[in-house]
Amino acid sequence: MKILSINVAPIGVLFPDDGVKAPIPTAYDKRPVAGAVQVDRLGLAGDRQADLSVHGGEDKAVYAYPSEHYAFWSERRLHALKRDLPLPPGSLGENLTIEGLMETDVWIGDQLQVGDVLFGVTEPRQPCFKFTARMGFAQAGKLMMQGGATGFYLNVLKPGVIKAGDEITLIPGPRAVSIAAFNERRRGGRQPDLWG
């Protein structure tokens, strides 16, 4: 288990080249950064969140996303958009593109040790319209929820410095609710199945 990429973004505009749609503030356009990155209680140095009512703050300071889902999203975008668009790390809006740690492996209250930084797992992501807009097809948000491919938010229990390539050590918490089970409860079988 390790960090493949650390991704940050300033606040920008969701539809910067569209003269028709009103500009929507967003920090979704996460880009990989090189070298060591300082982590404090509110997240990564150089990273921002545009809507603090749904992202950011101490309980959602850092967003981690499994790289294993990227192949699926690439295939779905190719199918929906009829063209192959690159999905570099950070394309799902994540701060940490990780490897070897899926939603089925992580429980709320687990801790992740990365170097001298200690993160706590707080909840899965609930995708918003900005995710759907960036993916470029109408069912993207529902698809993320139905497949449970949400990634998860982290709080920062011990600040420090991390870098791409750092190993992740999973420290089990109380193990009452897994990220996968939380996602399943949110889904609740209310929508037709889009995953697969």
CATH superfamily: PK beta-barrel domain-like
Portion of residues within helices? 10-25%
Total individual domains: 1
In the sheet with the most strands, the strands line up as: 4-1-8-7-11-10-9-13
Determine the CATH topology: M1 Pyruvate Kinase, Domain 3
Q: What characteristic shape results from the CA principal axes? A: globular
Mean pLDDT: 90
- What is the annotated CATH architecture? Beta Barrel
* Fraction in beta strands: 25-35%
- Uncertain residue segments: 192-196
Return the structural class.
Answer: alpha+beta
For the terminal residues, how far apart are their CA atoms? 26 Å
Report the CATH C-level class. Answer: Mainly Beta
* Number of alpha- plus pi-helical segments: 4
What are the defining features of this structure?
single chain; 196 residues; alpha+beta; M1 Pyruvate Kinase, Domain 3; 4 helices; globular
Report on this model:
The chain has 196 residues and is of the alpha+beta class. It has one domain: Beta Barrel (M1 Pyruvate Kinase, Domain 3), CATH 2.40.33. Helix content is 18%, strand content 27%. It has an eight-stranded mixed β-sheet. The relative contact order is 0.22. The model is unreliable at 192-196 (pLDDT under 50).
